[in-house]
Amino acid sequence: MTNKNRIQKPDSDSIRSAADLLRDGNIVSFPTETVYGLGADAKNGKAVAKIFAAKNRPDFNPLIVHLPDPSAAENYVHMNDVAKKLASAFWPGPFTMVLPLNEESGISDLITAGLDTVAIRVPANEVAHQLLKEFDGPIAAPSANKSGHISPTTANHVDGEFGDELEIIIDGGPCNKGIESTIIQITDHDVVLLRPGSITPEDIKNKTGIDVISSLTPTDNPVAPGQLKSHYAPNAKVRLNATGPNDGEAFLAFGETAHHENMLNLSPTGDLEEAASNLFSMMRELDDLELKTIAVSPIPQNGLGIAINDRLSRAAAPKE
Ligand code: TXA
Ligand code: MG
Predict the structure, then answer these.
(1) Could you give the residue range(s) of every CATH 3.90.870.10 domain in the chain?
(2) Beta carbon of 63 within 6 Å of any ligand 1 atom
(3) 132 Cβ inside 6 Å of ligand 1
(4) 77 CB less than 6 Å from ligand 1?
(5) Is the distance from CB of 153 to CB of 7 less than 8 angstroms?
(6) 309 contacts 140 by C-beta, under 8 angstroms
(7) What predicted TM-score, i.e. pTM, was given to this entire model?
(8) Do 97 and 186 form a contact (C-beta atoms < 8 A)?
C-alpha cells in the first residue's frame, strides 16, 4: 500500500474501515487533541499485544483506554464523587483518570499490566469521538510512535514511524495540544498527579476546588509507572528458563510441550502475541493454585518476547 492510501481523510468511509480493522483485532492510528494514538480494541488481548509489538516497547507499562463519552466510563471503572466531579469538569478533554477497575469490565489485563486500576480518557477531538462511536467499545491507545521516539502530532509523523506496519492512519490535521494528557489517580484518600499535562493542578483546583497532590499518602500502594511494586507480582516463587516443572511446581509453558499437571501454556504454537495476551491471567491462575513455585519455559528474547521476559524477570525478582 502506498502512503496515499494509508493516510486517509476523516469521513464515514475511513472511520468505518478503521472501526472494522479494530473489530478484526488490528491496530490503527487516529488523531486526538493531544497526540496521534495507536489504537486497538481494549478487550482483545491479542490486539493490544500488537500495540506493544509495533512500538517495540521493552516492557508492559499500562495503557490508557479511550471512551466516546463520560457516561460510558462506569461500565469499566468505579467512580466515586470526586471522580464524577472531575469527569464533568474535564471530559471530554486532555485529561486521564486512573480509577479502580470494574471486575466486569472485560478490559484486557495487558492494558492494566495486571493492576486493579485502569486509566480512562474521553478525548475532545471530533475524529477520535467519531471513531469511538463507530467502534462502539473501548480503544486502548498510547502515542503512535516507536518506543523512545517523539510523540507524533501529524499523520505524516505517524507514517514516518510505522510505514507499512499500519493499514490506516486517519488524518485529522495537526493535534492542537501536542503533549499527552494530564494523568490523575483517584483513590479513596487522594487525588494524585501521575503525569503533568496541559490541565494543571491549579486548573483543577480553580474549576472544582479539588486539591491534587504529587504523591500518594503512605497508606496507599505506590503506583507510578515502571515501579516494581506497582505491577502484579505472584506470591509463588518464579523459576525462569525451566525445561519442565520439578515435583510440586506449577508450570507456565510456551510452545509445543508435553502435558504436565498444573500447567498452562502461554501459546502452544509459540506465538508471542498470544503469549503476551495470556501472560497476566495465566500467572494469576497458576498463582491461585498456591504452589510454592511457578516454573516458566524459556521465551525467545526477540520482538514481544523482550517485554514478556521483562515482566517475568520482575516477577522472579526476590521480594523485599
Ligand atoms: O494524550 C494521551 O494520553 C495519549 C493519547 C493518544 O490519548 N495517550 C497516551 O497513552 O499517552 P499512554 O498509553 O502512552 O499512557 C500510558 C501511561 C502509562 O505510562 C502510565 O503512566 C499511565 O498512563 N497509566 C496507565 N494506566 C495506569 C494505571 N493503571 N496506573 C497508573 N498509571 C497508569
Ligand atoms: Mg508516548
Answers:
(1) 7-214
(2) yes
(3) no
(4) no
(5) no
(6) no
(7) 0.88
(8) yes
Strands 263-265 and 250-253: parallel
CATH number of 7-214: 3.90.870.10
The whole-number pLDDT of residue 320 equals 55
For the chain, which ranges sit under pLDDT 70?
1-4, 216-232, 319-320
Atom of ligand 1 nearest to the CA of 117: 29
The 10s digit of each residue's pLDDT in 261-299 is 999 999 999 999 999 988 988 998 999 999 999 999 999
- CB distance 161 to 146 below 8 Å: yes
Calculate how far, in angstroms, residue 143's C-alpha sits from the geometric centre of ligand 2: 4
> What topology does CATH give the domain 237-316?
Rossmann fold (3.40.50)
Specify the domain boundaries for CATH 3.40.50.11030 within the chain.
237-316
Whole-number Cα distances in Å, 273 to 125, 142, 235, 305: 30, 17, 25, 9
- What's the CA gap between 145 and 153, in Å, rounded? 10
